Amino acid sequence: MKKLCLVAVVLAVLLVATSLCLYSSKHSAIERSVVVYYQGFALIKEIRVVELSEGLNELVFADIPSQIIPYSIIVKSANTSLKILEHTYDYDLMSYSKLLSRSIGKKILVEMEDKKIEGVLLAFDGSSLILSSENNTIKIVFLNKVRSISIGANTSDFIVKPTLKILVEAEKSGKYCLELIYLTKSLKWTPQYSLLIDEKNGKILEFVGWAVVDNNAGIDLENIDLKLLAGEVNFVSNRQVYLTKALAESGLRDQFTSRKVFEYYVFSLDRKITIRSGESKNIVFITAKNLDCLKEFFVDYVRKGARVYVALSFNNTLGKPLPKGVYRLYKLTEDEVPIFIGEDSVEDTPANGTVRVVVGVAYDIKVERKIVESKKIGEKTIRQKIRIVLRNYGDEKAVISVIEHAYGDWEIVEATHSYIKVDAYSFEFKVEVPPESEVVIEYTIVIYW
């Protein structure tokens, strides 16, 4: 029943929508280019041709994003005889309650199930209307009994979608070209990578980077020039891509060219594209085959606990940077069935940099670590003996990096295996553990503070 009472209001909304579309369609964008950023916003540049009369003109654009950032709007014209005076972003949208609010003190007609009531609207809430009739009696009408409400509203006082109004002054009548530049929220791109690996032969058989573009900006972006910016831009204010059969086929191709702009990289799509409001589009932006890779095992007991992790690393020899994103790894079984083996979020990697993807925890390799001796040998000096046991239950040898940490000044005075100093607070042992065997690392460290 509550839906029925909105019939007249809905008709009024449709009338306003029709009039606005007719008015604004004359000034629709003839060209759009979009730059989408990591952080969930985009820069849009539009070219619009408008027909103006001499003097002041108010242009109304309704085909703009509902998530536009109003204070970011820039309006330009190459024609010096056109002056931009002001622009207004109007988001006071029509609604049921707004129509009734503007009708307080005015006469309305309420159609009930069995009769019609006419009177001046005094007040309303979510369940009732208060009317004053001609004989000065007060009537309370409950909305669950109402079929429709007729309101004598001026439809030009309302808008049905966010609207940009621009006041311009033209020296003479004619056609003019306007350039609109603005930022909008709720447009985002996320790099996602799919890798099909053959770790025994040290190869990434197929490498595909996807640009996942989500458009929740409240506008259909049709036939646009698309650019994706990789980099962290200061701005005051995970969708999964799964492996498909296409990953193992040759039908995928690079569609973006990259170039450096300031301290960022911009990837430009080599064709026009349409991304409608509410769509998520996955676009192939980089591909490669048969990249060399290396499977690694590592332990960082102090920071990551008693687990042996497996990682895959490779050099970025693709000739362009790899924007930060999620890397998903797959492996084909003997019967050619792809198995998902892990994923990791990796930061921006420049060209010729190293990508290291932590895939998961090794199933057949275990680690134990304990402090077997700890003795204070001075007021600010301590000596400790550490034992680390690596057990390989698998049928293949494993080369494992064991990362240890020491804070303050330190010196290793005795060790069963060689090590390298990683930084002021870390050092690393690299040992080979044969299949079905164990290796014990022991070292004695003196720490000063």
Helix content: under 10%
Unreliably modeled segments: 1-25, 238-250
Question: How many structural domains?
Answer: 4
- Radius of gyration equals 33 Å
Report the β-strand fraction as a percent range.
Answer: over 45%
How many separate helices? 3
User: How many DSSP-defined strands?
Assistant: 31
Query: Which secondary-structure class do the elements indicate?
Result: mainly beta
Average per-residue pLDDT, rounded, comes to: 84
Distance between the termini: 78 Å
The profile of the biggest β sheet is: 8 strands, mixed
What is the general shape?
elongated
Explain what you see:
The chain is built from three helices and 31 strands. By secondary structure, the protein is mostly beta strands. The protein folds into four domains: 4-93 and 158-184, no CATH class; 103-152, Roll (SH3 type barrels); 188-362, no CATH class; 365-448, Immunoglobulin-like, CATH 2.60.40. Strands 1, 2, 4, 12, 15, 16, 17 and 18 form an eight-stranded mixed sheet that branches. Strands 24-21-20-27-30-29 form a six-stranded mixed sheet. Strands 9-8-7-6-10 form a five-stranded antiparallel sheet.
Name its key features.
3 helices, single chain, 31 strands, 6% helix, elongated, 449 residues, disordered N terminus, SH3 type barrels, mainly beta, eight-stranded mixed beta sheet
